[in-house]
Every structure is written in C-alpha cells, then in structure tokens.
Amino acid sequence: MSNIKIKNNFEDSTVKESAKDSISKSVSQSADSLDLKKEEGFFENVSSELLDYASQLGATQAEFGFSKDIGLSVSVRNQEIETLEYNRDNSCGISVYYGKQKGNSSTSDLSIDALKAAVDAALNIAKFTQADEFSGLANRDLMATNSIDLDLDHPMGVSAETAKELALECEQSGLSFSDKITNSEGASFSSHRNLHYYVNSHGFSAMQPSTRHSLSCVLLAEGESSKQRDYWYSASRDSNNLESGETIGNKAASRTIARLNSRKISTQKAKVLFVPEMARTLIGHFKGAINGTSLYRESSFLLGKINQPVFPDFVSLEEKPFIKKGLASAWHDSEGMATKEQLIVEDGVLNTYLLNSYSARKLKMSPTGHAGGTHNLFLKDTGQNFNDLVKQLDKGLIVTEMMGHGVNAITGDYSRGASGFWVENGEIQHFVEEITIAGNLIDMYSNLIAVGNDFDYRSSVVTGSWLLPEMMIASS
C-alpha cells in the first residue's frame, strides 16, 4: 500500500490510500487559491510591527525573510504509487543588529507572538556576540528601487491523481523502450509554489511568488556482462515547458542502455569532453573561487585574479537576472540590493568578484548584488554542436558522471571519480567506469579548447559541453 503524507509546520501524518480522493481536491487547489494581495498585506503588517518592536528593544538595524511553500510530490515504481506527499511550510529568518553585534533566529510559527519571541532571541544573541566592524545591512542607497515582473509564478493546479498519471506515463515510456530495461527505480513528479517576502529597516520590502515543477525517471538495464542505472529529468517554472513524460522516459532508457557492456581503458593522459551537466560543475567551482567569503578568508585559487585573464579570450560568462521564467531570476539580491546584467568574464578576463555587503567591506570593495548567489549565468559557445566536439576530441574521454568531492579550493587541484564514454577516431566506442580524472582548475580554465552550443537549460547555470586538451585519466 502506498504512503500519503500530509505535512505542515505542526503535523506529519500518514494516511491510508483510501484517503487519497478526499485530499486530492484540497491539494490541487491550495497553491492556486493563495490570495497574493492578502498574503502581501499580512507580511507588510506583521513586518512593520516587528521592525518597530525590534527598534523599541534597542536594535539599530533588522531584516526579515518570510517564506511560504506549498507543494505536491508523487513517486511511482514499477507502475505502482509509492509516495504521495503534500507539504505546506512556513518560515521566517530574522537578523538583528545591536550596533555592530549581530544575532540570528528563525521560526516556523508566523503568529505575532512567536515572531516577537524570535526577535527577542535574536537580540539576546546579538548582545552576547563580539562586535564586528564589517557587519550590518547593505547600504541604504544600494537598495533596489525598480520592481520588475519576471513571470516566475505559474501554479498548475495539479491534483494528486493527475500527478500520479504524469509519473506513471513517464515510467511506462522508459520501461517499454527496450527489453534491455529490466527494472525501475521510479519516476517522480513535483509541483511547488513559494512566496518569499524580504523586508529590512532601510524601508526596502518585496514579495516574490514563484513556482517550480519537475518530472524525472530512473531506470535499470541489463546486458550480457553488466547492469547499469541512469536517469533523465526536466524542470521549469512553467509546467507547460516541461518535457513530456514520454520524452523523459525514453531519454532515461536510452542513456541507461548506452552504459551497458563497459570496458576498461589504460591509465593515460588524454583529451576530455565534459557534457553540459558536468561542465556546469566546473563553473560552480569557478563561482566558489570568486565568492567574497573564499576571497577574504584567502582560501581561493583565484585570489588576486580580478581584471586578469582566467579563460581563453573566446570565453564570456554573462549574468542575466531579468530572464522571464528564469530559474534564478531576481531584481534584487537577498539583502535588497539591485541586481544587474553584467559580464562576469569578458573575453577571458575576470571582471568582478561575487560580493555581498559583508565580504565587500572586508575586502574594501563595493558589493556586487550577489548576496544569495548568482542570477542566471550563460556561457558563450564557440559554435560547435556535440557531434562536432566529439570529432574534435578524436581520442579521449566523454565525462557524463562524476563522484566525490576531490577539489582543493586553495590550489585548484582537481581529482574526481568519473564515468563516461571512450572515443577513438572521433567515434564513441564504449562506456567506461571506475576511473579517476585529475588536473588543476587553473589549467583547465585557461586551456579550454571549445564550448559547445548543446546548452542544458535545466539549471540557472547554462553552458554547453567543454573540451579540454588533456587530463590524467586513471583506471582502476
């Protein structure tokens, strides 16, 4: 019998499958029935009262981040429903400043009494912390003033029954793709709506409703000498932009079958091609290295590289925070500072670090609007499609999966477990696994040969495949 969980701040109960119909309608209506004006009115009233309350208690500055999340998730396996989960979560994160002393607290109870108690707790913490000359809100004159509709809110009103059917269709497409597909680890569908409201004592406030929908499938295949597992998924703000269940199931199946009958390779140095899902992890390491916290702690392999070449001159990395329906679109960062379109890397040169107000003060620089992270990064391609890059690779490794966390943030030394496909004469020969790839990120960035136009849009970091001239590949 399947599990159906109804979760909120105060309850986590499991009910029998026979109760499914009775909750299905309420689940599907919950996200759509949110009255945004009413919710914003609530946030405005309660935050005004809390700011006054914090000031009366001696706080010199304060900020509040409210969140309400409503969602439905269903998972099926071998054409039977496994779990159906509905969640409705509330939270509030509080930061108060007592001069240069800071205290944080949080609560999932949004009643005014509970929120005031959380303010009390944060102030008590602040009074016992050491003063930090760099602490405080971002400067008042940096607060965003132009609200932009980024079209992030697309509730689909899905019922539990519809969610189940979407997952079942997805899995069935994968299971029926080939007789080499022998089992399933399941298919999942989720639909979530979030309301986020941020306010601070500079007078800045903003509410952003947003949605995120996803559909995925994980399959197993069996060949003459091996069993393999792989997956595929789709994610979007707007459910109309999701790939179909049939497409996802078929991709998961074909990817799984392609991994069958792997063969060993010898330890050697060779060219490496990272597919887009893996290439964006390299951008992730780059983001970590130019993050203000890493820089002022002097724990970055890109320390002091501002305004210097880091990539070849064909590389440009652009931040686009105002993309409609973007997975990381925002007109302000998590401190209320305005975001902007900018080239983080231009013609290979590092133009900017990623600084919030605290790290900017530590580094004696200006904040860059990156409190909370980046907002939609796009890496310029060099014109080749994936097949072109495979031919250009000629002989080497296509990396499709990586394991482990072997990255030294200070030196850039890079070593991770991997699997993928071996290529000779520009043609894929066979799957390889249980290997380790190693290099140094400084060299990997500066020696990048090409970036494909096979973009993967399922992330806020959009890139094509990366072709590198040489890495050490160690076989087990």
Describe this structure in a few short sentences.
The chain is an alpha+beta fold and 476 residues long.
**Major beta sheet, specifics?**
8 strands, mixed
User: Unreliable segments (pLDDT under 50, ≥5 consecutive)?
Assistant: 4-24
Integer count of domains: 2
Continuous helix count: 10
**Helix content estimate:** 25-40%
The radius of gyration is 25 Å
Estimate the global geometry from the Cα principal axes.
globular
- Quickly name the level 1 CATH class of the largest domain: Alpha Beta
Mean pLDDT: 93
Order of helices and strands: EEHHEEEHHEEEHEHHEEEHEHEEEHEEE
User: Please, what is the CATH homologous superfamily of the largest domain?
Assistant: PmbA/TldD superfamily
**End-to-end CA span:** 43 Å
Strand proportion, as a percent range, falls in: 35-45%
Determine the structural class based on helices, strands and strand pairing: alpha+beta
Number-wise, the strands total 19
The CATH architecture name of the largest domain reads: 2-Layer Sandwich
Annotated CATH topology of the largest domain: PmbA/TldD fold
